[in-house]
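Final paragraph of the annual report: two paired records, presented back to back.
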Amino acid sequence: MAAKPQVRNAQDAGSAPDDRETHPVDETLPPLKMLTSGLQHVAAMYAGVVAPPLIVGAAVGLSGTELTFLTGASLFTAGLATFLQTLGVWKIGARLPFVNGVTFAGVAPMLAIVDTTDDKADALPVIFGAIIVAGLLGFLAAPWFSRLVRFFPPVVTGTVITLIGVSLLPVAFGWAQGPNPAAEDYGSTTFLSLAAITLVVVLLLRRFTRGFVKQIAVLLGLVIGTVIAIPFGVTDFSPVTEADIVGFPTPFHFGGPQFALAAIISMCVVMLVSMTESTADMLALGEIVERPADEKTIAAGLRADTLGSAISPLFNGFMCSAFAQNIGLVAMTRIRSRFVVACGGGFLVLMGLSPVAASLISVVPRPVLGGAGVVLFGSVAASGIQTLVKAGLDKDNNVLIVAVSLAVGIIPITAPEFYHAFPETAKIILDSGISTGCVAAVLLNVVFNHLGRGRDDDDVTAPMEPGEEISGSHTVKAAHVH
């Protein structure tokens, strides 16, 4: 176990590139493996990227052509943000295998902005102006926000990672039931059977294949599931035949940004939520790839998120954040190279520049995505449980932290209307189970494991720096205060 801290410390000390390249995160894979693994990441997150622009664009009243343009712009800006996160520039980018894309946390407040804008033609410029300001403010705040990492020992990170997986599973279940919740065939046996078949195909490939085929089991499962869906009339190829070959997201296509105070405040709140979730995602991914995310890594990752968000509106895109679903793909395939994800970012850019290429991914039926999503998102939850095993759950305090935090984080999933009486601004935070569960875990950890330790040392697990291993002889000392 001593090797992992050495890799991290070598990075902090500015070691030679050869030292860094020994870690799987910095490996470059053979071209075919790089391309297919990168495409697998795109397939896993495509639906999440295109959903927000489709929802917001429809609310604004955009035509089909304009909706396609807005979707392509979101793919293009997601690719740029992914480049920032994986490859990095200066002190920007976590340099971890992170996929960035449009955060769904901003959908509700953006719809509220649309509703309160008299002239719908001004709605998107107002949204874009608010995102630019929120992104720049978040960029400036990133170094201070990253210092919260000291309050994320394994009992907190394990809880949050588990919540990420549990929060994503309903998305997979929704996909499995079909593309349109209002349709009569939503949740039909046909859709559920396709999801189940895809799930079984992925599991069989993972169980009975080896090497490269095993690592791209999800991608193969999506292809096989799509082919199986053709006789059922579920696979729609019309987006491919109707899409243009080339298209560029013209800067400020919908007009120059407008700056409205109420909209800016709303998107700043979303930015705080997004930064909280991104911090949790970085801690989760750091554990999975065995390169724990320290304060510098988180600060650099948050700078990439926020700068990507600030740049995105220039090309008609929305606020960007790390995609938790791709963490499940890294956990399952064990392909930890950040260059694989950067390759996925390249695909996203190309899809943004070529609508016909983007439409190829959209051919995959939603139930097929749902079947694969069960494996991906369940893998995230399993990784969280693995982290909790190391968190000292033999201590009563830690059991309480996990129990209450999970309960708080699951509220938006099991009781979606629980916070219906709260103001819309508050619901932006409360409706995110990851954010509420994360805040609850951090606060409870402070109360139980930081305050008054001298009165109950035998029952308290000391807070630790990220990546620090827990040993059976671990005891609490006054010197462990952070």
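The closing record of the year follows.
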Amino acid sequence: MAVDYTVIVLYLAGMLAMGWWGMRRAKSKSEFLVAGRRLGPAMYSGTMAAIVLGGASTIGGVGLGYQYGLSGAWMVFTIGLGLLALSVFFSARIARLKVYTVSEMLDLRYGGRAGVISGVVMWAYTLMLAVTSTIAYATIFDVLFDMNRTLAIVIGGSIVVAYSTLGGMWSITLTDMVQFVVKTIGVLLLLLPIAVVKAGGFGEMKAELPTSYFDPLGIGGETIFTYVLIYTFGMLIGQDIWQRVFTARSDRTARWGGTVAGTYCLAYALAGAVIGTAAKVLYPKLGSPDDAFATIVKDELPVGVRGLVLAAALAAVMSTSSGALIACATVANNDIWSRLRGVVRRDGDDHDEVAGNRAFILVMGVAVIGTAIALNNVVEALTVAYNLLVAGLLVPILGGLLWKRGTGQGALASVIVGGLAVIGLMAGYGILANEPVYYGLLASLAVYVAVSLATKPTDEAVLSTWRERLAGRSAELKSEPVPAHQ
């Protein structure tokens, strides 16, 4: 394992070096939080694919393939569909808004009535997303070094917190590009063909496994529908995803770069399911489907390649973890703390804002590591996060983008009712039940429409400003001057 250890250590050292380099670039709030809004198509596509394809998509995607066969691709496939929908239909408009958070978009659209409450919902989602990614370090480091769970979480989490705190979005962008390349080589170009060959090829796999393993809908229609509702729609509204859209250099970059990333996700989904299916042939009686990835890597790959593929898994976890962490800190600082303190941004205070956001990343990082150590069930934590996000924020966000008659009162009521409904329903039906997000979303929609129609339409001056920003005819806030080279 010495060669494998060397590969992993070099990879982790490289991540920290990227963080140090990124620190030299992040001199303003715009540079620190959204990489100066100047990523080109290649970097934008790579970093977007990196953040959405995390540990759940890699380790969990292979596990679903082990359990259900090719239909296990549906979870990651719906993530790709969501990213495609976001890129084709909404990303250009989102990028033109020149905001930093989803709550700022809601304030701009509705006249400043839903910011703090929507910020709390988004903060809870991004926190739990960062926590679930951080928990996954324990699995990878256990395979690598036979390491204690708590120590693995502390080491992995500390590296992500370090490079994220140092350089903000510039560091995360650079590390995500490396992680994208490592994942592509490790999972798609190495593990996928090796796993199929070791399992005897597709002919042998079909002979060894039930026909349901090759049924595209074998996982079940209700499960697929739930994946679409949670992950496809979740991709449309998550702060971690929007913050990447804000980094795009232009509308065209956001649209086409995101489309490339979404298409990549579809290929990654199928690859994970095929690897899991091959693992089922090789190891038919594993204790848990989630052990499939680590087992096939540890037992079937040659020295050196094994280290690279494990680095790919680590890259998948780190990219999602860092993206969720900066999103969590951005929301906590800009949407909650600053609003509660009544802070007004002033010209010339960029350095202070960078220092403040850097401090929030550090604080939120410590909170994420502590929460990850305390929690055990990754699936439940992730389900709570996405249920809150979809039931609480999907309707007011899409309503604001698509329905002129939606009002601030309707948006606020929708966030509150949808959030409270899904929490209550999870308590009644169980966290992993499908009903909470179904009924919570319906309640949110009903309240949004009813309250919006019952209240005075949004002020025309607010809508006029909103249309100007959507059209890209209004410059970014004065305290964030747009560099000449943009």
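Residues 103 and 315 are 29 Å apart (CA to CA). This concludes the annual technical report; the extension proposal builds directly on these records.
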